[in-house]
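Mods, move this if it's the wrong board.
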Amino acid sequence: MISRLQYWFGNGWIGIVSLLISAFCVFLSLSVHEFAHGYAAHKLGDDTAKSMGRLNLSPSSHLDPIGAICLFLFGFGWAKPVPINPGNFKVGKRKSGMVITSIAGPISNLLLAFIALLIMRIIEAFFFASSQFSAMIFSVLLILLSVLMEMNIGLAIFNLLPVPPLDGSKILNAVLPARLYFKIMQYEQYGFIILILLLNLPVFSNLLGFLSNAVFVFYNWVIGLIPFL
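Not the wrong board. Structure tokens:
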């Protein structure tokens, strides 16, 4: 955390550009994540998010201050949950609908990360800087895409943890027997404290880093199968 702050504010215009890139990526990543939840619910018959003005990509609709700061500083965070009413889902789709709407956010981030990496590889393979100015533009664009990719992979993996208010806890609700789930959710009020503690544990950060790197390696392998690359 300290190293990121030192880099942003101790490297002149390069640090400022890096900070602006990180801010853009945080706003986009969290907005896409929550929009995906709301859109999935909408397709399943629940318009709660739409009626509350949350079915959009505006950062002001979705940002959770603490979650956004964590994403800035640690690379893992969360947004303000989109309201979903499973009672509005189509008949027989309540449990499966909760799984679909909960996992839609992480999947959208994994897809965004893949697209960012794919564009990076296309730029590296086909675009060449003809001047110092174009080289600078390409460098900034590649940095932005790299940050966007890393942030979205981390956001997806982190949000699949079965800790409230993360998406993993909602998926857990849909697959566990009600009695066991409610026993676990007795500790829901401690969710944020647990998350902050986990983020400060080196072992936990290393595990998330390992999983993120595994996704990155897999994406590179998939992109390597594309003929024109």
